[in-house]
Amino acid sequence: AQSVTQPDIHITVSEGASLELRCNYSYGATPYLFWYVQSPGQGLQLLLKYFSGDTLVQGIKGFEAEFKRSQSSFNLRKPSVHWSDAAEYFCAVGLSPAQKLVFGQGTRLTINP
Amino acid sequence: KAGVTQTPRYLIKTRGQQVTLSCSPISGHRSVSWYQQTPGQGLQFLFEYFSETQRNKGNFPGRFSGRQFSNSRSEMNVSTLELGDSALYLCASRFTDSTDTQYFGPGTRLTVL
Predict the structure, then answer these.
(1) How many other CB atoms sit within 10 Å of the CB of residue B38?
(2) Which regions of B1-113 does DSSP assign to beta strands (E)?
């Protein structure tokens, strides 16, 4: 069965520092990959997605992610975080756009002023 | 264009009762999916409806059911509530089965006492 692992439950970074959130997946084929962000009391907002093509994808709010097939990873990055980036981040995979999403457990991001 | 709306936003029920949650998708979207989010289990897929038909189902007991109306609005029902059903229930919509992105609503927070 497909699975998604986000190894870091909680990460704290200083405002202005760079950020990398890790995501590894277990799938028989190359899945469709997503990163969502959830602010307290809110639903999920899509940051970016990868289906095929260029393995470095750009998203909203200055985020990017790189798909590495050899490592079964899809890590999320941002060169300089802002206090407003504090939230929970979820990596998700799907067999196809029509299939259900399987989510990782999430990484909670705290920003130090 | 209005986003996905869910009503009510908050609910408190007691064990043994039943509850119905409502989701109105983005205008023109025909697919609606439901997810349960709990601190222990994370985000888990419940079911997906497309054109009034259940197309996909997750691993939840039969107490969890849903339906979709001709206007694409969806409801999910949980009968004989248990304490463990306390969760944030998220609804997501997308245009058709060929569309890649699911857009999430703010969720309904259900508390079972």
Answers:
(1) 13
(2) 5-7, 10-13, 19-24, 31-38, 42-50, 53-57, 64-68, 74-78, 87-94, 103-104, 108-112
Cα distances (angstroms) measured from residue A21 to each of A94, B31, B52, B112: 19, 30, 38, 34
Distances (CA, A) of A6 to A10, B33, B38, B57, B111: 10, 23, 16, 24, 27
DSSP letter assigned to residue B106: -
Instruction: Give yes or no for A41 touching B (CB within 8 A).
Output: yes
Q: Using CA atoms, how far apart are residues A11 and A96, in angstroms rounded to an integer? A: 30
A69 φ/ψ angles, rounded to the nearest 5 degrees: -65, -40
Summary mean pLDDT of chain B: 93
Tens of pLDDT, residues A45-92: 999 999 888 899 999 999 999 999 999 999 999 999 999 999 999 999
- Annotate A55-106 with DSSP letters as a single string: SEEE-GGG-EEEEEGGGTEEEEEESS--GGG-EEEEEEEESSTTSPPEE---
- The owner of tokens 């189902």 is B57
B50, B102, B103, B109: best to mutate for the A interface, most A CBs within 10 A:
B102
> How far apart, in whole angstroms, are the C-alpha atoms of residue B6 and residue B3?
10
Please state whether B85 falls in left (phi above 0), alpha (psi between -120 and 50) or beta.
alpha
Q: Which phi and psi (to 5°) does residue B83 adopt?
A: -55, -35
Give A-chain residues touching B105 at CB under 8 angstroms: 43
Residues from chain B contacting residue A4 (CB–CB below 8 Å): none
